Amino acid sequence: xxxxxxxxxxxxxxxVIKDRTTLAELFRVWLATKTKLKRQSRDVYQQVWDxxxxxxxxxxxxxxxxxxxxxxxxxxxxxxxxxxxxxxxxVLLACSRWRCAMTYWR
Length: 106
What we know:
- With about 110 residues, the chain is an all-alpha fold.
- Helices cover about 70% and strands about 0% of the residues.
- The chain has helices spanning about 1-5, 25-35, 40-50, 55, 65-80, 80-105.
- Helix 2 crosses helix 6 (about 80-105) and helix 5 (about 65-80) packs antiparallel against helix 6.
- The longest helix has 24 residues, at about 80-105.
């Protein structure tokens, strides 16, 4: 199964993001659309995703991350660092809002 997950490719930014899209794919596409962000901000988002999201929840599909599960994950991060939990929440919310906007406009 891990080999299958690694072989998936991220959809291009002009492709439709669906409930079956993984969170890792959603993050990559979302970050790729943020062309006006400063390099430092992009790096911070990438670092927080790599540290707290990629391995832990990246393989989950969008539909597999209800709010309750996201909150539990954020609580685990906050147990070690409130600032990292806040930044990771920013990433999750931004990806979620972007996905909703893309769904609405298609």
